[in-house]
C-alpha cells in the first residue's frame, strides 16, 4: 500500500512503515496530482480533504490525526465509499492544561482566586467535559452549555448559551466548527452575543476560530476594550487578522493541543484505525516506539503556600506566555522582513518545542505538605512526599 502523510505527523514512519511505502508532504499545499497513487491519506487539520483533492486518486482510506474534522468532507468520502477516521480526544488533556495555564496566569496577574469565578464551558465533549471535571474537582463553579448533549441527556446540568454569557466570569469555548444543521457553531458568538458579554469577562477560544465573529470581537475590543481575550484559534488561519492579534491579551498559534503526548496519541489512534479498517494485525504500540522519558522532578519545600506551589508547577510544565511571545515576535520579524505572517504562523506550529503534560512532572514535597500535594494532584501533577 502507498501511504501519503502530512509531514507533521510524528512517528509516522515508525508506526506505518510495515504497512507500505510512506511519502510525506507539506499539508497546506497537498494537491490531487501529488496523492494520485496513494491508498491511504493521513492528514492534519490544515489539509482540506474534499472532491477537489480526491477526485482522480485511488485513495481508499483517509485519517486525520486530530480531533477536529471540519476540514474533511465526510459526505463526499461516504459517497465514494472511502473509509475515514479521526482521533477523538487525543489531545484533550493538552487543551485542558493550556486553559489551566491561562487561568492560573490570569489569577496571579489580576489578583483573583479561581474559586471566586464562575467558569462557563461552551461545548462539553472530550475537551470541555474533561475541563469541567478538572475545574469542579478544584471547587470551581462551572456552567455548561451543550445543546446537542442537553437534547440527548436532558436539560439538567446544562444552561442556555445566553444564560451562560450573562453569568460566567470566564468563558471557555470548545465547540467543533459546524456550519449547518440544528446547532451550528459558525459565528456562535455573533455581534449580539459579543456585545452582551459582561465587562471584564475573560474569553478563551481553543475550539475553532470561526466560532467567534472576528469583526464583532474586534469592534468590541476597539470601542470598549473591556474584555480579557485569549485566542489560540483564529478565523482564516494561517492568515490571521493582525489588528485582532494586537488587541487580544494572550495570542497563540493553534497549539493548545500540541503536547507531545497529545500529538503522538493522535498518530497511534489513526494507526489503529487503519489496521482496523484493512483488517491488519496491530504490531506497534506507542509505548514501544517512544519509551516513557524519565519523569522530571521538581522539589517544592521553600514556601508552605498552596497557590505558589501550583503556579510553580504549572509554569515549570507549560507557561502559555512563551507561546504568546513567540507568535508576536515571529509576526514582527516577518513584517520587518516583508515576509508572509501566514508562513510564520505555520512555521511556529511545525517547529513547536517538545511540551510534556502535567503528569510527567513529579513534585517532591515534605511530609508536612500533604494538603499541597492533594491540590497539585487535582491539577494532574504527580507528587511524592518525604
Ligand atoms: N486548539 C487546539 O489545539 C484544539 C485541540 C483539540 C480540539 N480542538 C477543537 O475543539 C473541538 C472540540 O473538541 P472535543 O474533543 O471536545 O470534541 P467533541 O466532539 O468530543 O465535543 C464537542 C462538543 O461540542 C458540543 N457542541 C456541538 N455543537 C454545539 C453548539 N452549537 N453549542 C454548544 N456545544 C456544541 C457537542 O455536543 C460536543 O459535546 C474540536 O472539534 C476541535 O475543533 C482544538
Ligand atoms: O483538532 C485538533 O485535534 C487540534 O486542533 C489540533 O491540535 C490541530 O493540529 P494541526 O492538525 O493543525 O496540526
Give the helices and strands, then pairings.
Blueprint (H helix, E strand, L loop, with lengths): L1 E5 L5 H5 L4 E5 L14 E4 L7 H4 L6 E4 L9 H6 L3 E3 L6 H19 L7 E5 L3 H12 L3 E5 L1 H7 L7 H7 L2 E4 L17 H6 L5 E4 L8 H10 L4 E4 L10 H6 L2 E2 L8 H19 L7 H4 L6 E5 L5 H12 L2 H17 L4 H10 L10 E5 L4 H10 L2 E4 L1
Parallel strand pairs: 1-2, 1-3, 3-4, 4-5, 6-7, 6-8, 8-9, 9-10, 10-11, 12-13, 13-14
Helix pairs in contact: 4-5, 4-13, 13-16, 14-15
Bound molecules: nicotinamide-adenine-dinucleotide and 4-phospho-D-erythronate.
Task: Give a short synopsis of this structure.
The protein has 386 residues and is α/β, with parallel strands linked by helices. The protein contains 16 helices and 14 strands. It is an enzyme of class 1 (oxidoreductase).
Question: Which class best fits the helix and strand makeup?
Answer: alpha/beta
Order of helices and strands: EHEEHEHEHEHEHHEHEHEHEHHEHHHEHE
Query: Which range does the strand content fall in?
Result: 15-25%
Q: How would the global form be characterised?
A: globular
CATH architectural label of the largest domain: 3-Layer(aba) Sandwich
Tell me the radius of gyration.
22 Å
Q: Could you state the CATH homologous superfamily of the largest domain?
A: NAD(P)-binding Rossmann-like Domain
Specify the CATH class of the largest domain: Alpha Beta
Q: What is the fold named in CATH at topology level of the largest domain?
A: Rossmann fold
* Helix content estimate: 25-40%
What small molecules does this complex bind?
nicotinamide-adenine-dinucleotide, 4-phospho-D-erythronate
The multimeric state of the shown protein is single chain
How many distinct domains?
Answer: 3
Q: What low-confidence regions span 5 or more consecutive residues with pLDDT below 50?
A: none
Strand order, biggest sheet?
7-6-8-9-10-11
Domain D-isomer specific 2-hydroxyacid dehydrogenase catalytic: 15-277
EC number: 1.1.1.290
Catalytic activity: 4-phospho-D-erythronate + NAD(+) = (R)-3-hydroxy-2-oxo-4-phosphooxybutanoate + NADH + H(+)
Main location: cytoplasm
